[in-house]
Design a protein that fits this description.
5-stranded parallel β-sheet, Elongation Factor Tu (Ef-tu), domain 3, about 15% strand, 11 strands, alpha/beta, 13 helices, Rossmann fold, 3-stranded antiparallel β-sheet
């Protein structure tokens, strides 16, 4: 079982990863520069073609970095947090796509001007006559489709399952574009060291993905023999799923973390979804709590006892071991976002100086109320239940100052809808608190809470 990672060690790992990434980008650009000739910059159109190659290499490198962000590498996952890595992946992906788009546009423009034919005719000629160009063009279409489907407005109109399937095809796109790069890229032809470096990059990325997204989850789930034990209704549209297995302690999971869950039924086997633990692991049992959002989650209530389960994880840094016990803690959960906080509290020592704020729109949405009351009583945590409209229970600087003693000295841990997180961040800013003392679990990327 891995030891808890201190903030200092996490920062050092992050710095090391950033340094390696930066050096890799520099080396990638050096690959192109080392193969330039006078002809590559002798005129407007050769310069356009050369710029297109810079865009291609940079875009491809950023795409590989993006894949590494979601490869589930434990060394970096534990330092940064899975949710933030996925968010960084989402933020960086458009830059990669734009660079690849610029490459296609510029190379077609440069070649068309050199050959003195129309741009459309040049594109057709390249795709139909150049070696490995047709697979590369298919890859380009797959990349652009994934990018458009991830655009916020488009993403809001399609099911998670559809978006996830489209996203999977980007792996095919990367494989199709690889041979185009190696076989036709002027920086690789007759340059064995450059080619070896580029192949090594792809091999490393592919190995990481296959190891930590396929082999490790399969092996882990097979050994643990995870199965659904029971499903219970917690509240309106909210259920808890109990999963049992052998030697679950070997997972090293902590309260507040989450797994990617895959339930092996005809309806669910082909997709995984991230859900937080709603209780600290114990007695060879895991518990997750899910809100019905009308998609995959709506049918989980029908899971039968004995259904086999596969997991990836645990992920997340939202744990008791990462809290600063020298400061008072303010734990804030909104809606079903209370579940990781409830699990996190179990791992806290007794007599913790903390306040728990539980925010919902209605009284009937206060799930696990009795559990929270018992836990808070055992740990000495002050519980504040806020069920009602925001106007009745504002969470601005004034409200927090009147509710929490020495609020400016506190560390905030927030989990809930984006509006709640934004409100707490603004309140902390108004209280002149440093942003580093507001910790929040980001649920944007899987939309579990953003529809709250």
């Amino acid at each position: 079982m891995a030891k808890p990672l201190t903030r200092k060690r996490a920062s050092l790992r992050l710095d090391a990863a950033a340094t390696i990434t930066g050096l890799g980008l520099g080396f990638t650009l050096a690959v192109l520069v080392s193969t330039l000739s006078v002809d590559d910059v002798n005129g407007v159109y050769p310069i356009i073609t050369t710029i297109s190659r810079v865009a291609a290499l940079s875009g491809s490198y950023l795409a590989l970095v993006g894949l590494m962000m979601v490869a589930r590498i434990p060394w970096i996952e534990r330092a940064v947090g899975h949710d933030r890595l996925v968010l960084w992946h989402r933020k960086s992906a458009p830059y990669s796509l734009f660079l690849i788009l610029f490459h296609v546009l510029l190379v077609v423009l440069g070649y068309a001007a050199t050959d003195r034919i129309r741009v459309g005719a040049e594109l057709w000629r390249l795709v139909t006559t150049y070696p490995w160009m047709l697979p590369a063009f298919v890859a380009f279409i797959l990349f652009m489709t994934a990018g458009i489907s991830s655009y916020k407005r488009a993403r809001a109109k399609i099911k998670y399952e559809t978006w996830w399937t489209i996203h999977l095809y980007t792996y095919l796109g990367i494989a199709l574009s690889f041979m185009h790069q190696i076989q036709t890229g002027v920086m690789f032809i007759n340059h064995p060291l450059n080619r070896a470096y580029w192949i090594a990059l792809y091999v490393v990325v592919a190995s990481c993905i296959i190891t930590w997204r396929v082999i490790v989850p399969l092996t882990k789930s097979f050994k643990l023999k995870l199965k659904v034990e029971k499903v219970e209704i917690e509240g309106p549209g909210i259920i808890s799923i109990y999963v049992s297995g052998k030697n679950i302690a070997k997972l090293g999971a902590k309260g507040g973390q989450f797994f990617n869950w895959r339930f092996l039924t005809s309806e669910h086997w082909y997709q995984s979804h991230p859900f937080s633990l709603s209780a600290a692991p114990k007695h060879n049992q895991l518990r997750l709590t899910v809100k019905n959002l009308g998609d995959h989650s709506s049918s989980l209530i029908n899971l039968e006892k004995g259904t086999r389960v596969m997991v990836e994880g645990p992920y997340g840094t939202f744990t008791a071991s990462r809290t600063d016990i020298r400061r008072p803690l303010v734990l804030i959960g909104g809606g079903v976002g209370i579940t990781p906080i409830r699990a996190m509290i179990e791992d806290m020592p007794a007599h913790t100086s903390a306040d728990l704020i539980y925010r919902t729109s209605r009284v009937e949405d206060l799930i696990m109320k009795s559990e929270l009351e018992t836990l808070c009583d055992e740990k000495g945590i002050r519980l504040h239940l806020m069920a009602g409209p925001r106007s009745q229970y504002p969470l601005d600087a004034k409200a927090l100052k009147s509710l929490i003693h020495n609020v400016r000295d506190a560390e905030f841990y927030v989990c809930g809808p984006n509006q709640l997180t934004d409100a707490i961040k603004k309140a902390a800013l108004d209280l002149k608190m440093p942003a580093s003392r507001v910790h929040h679990e980001i649920f944007e990327y899987h939309s579990v809470l953003e529809k709250e």
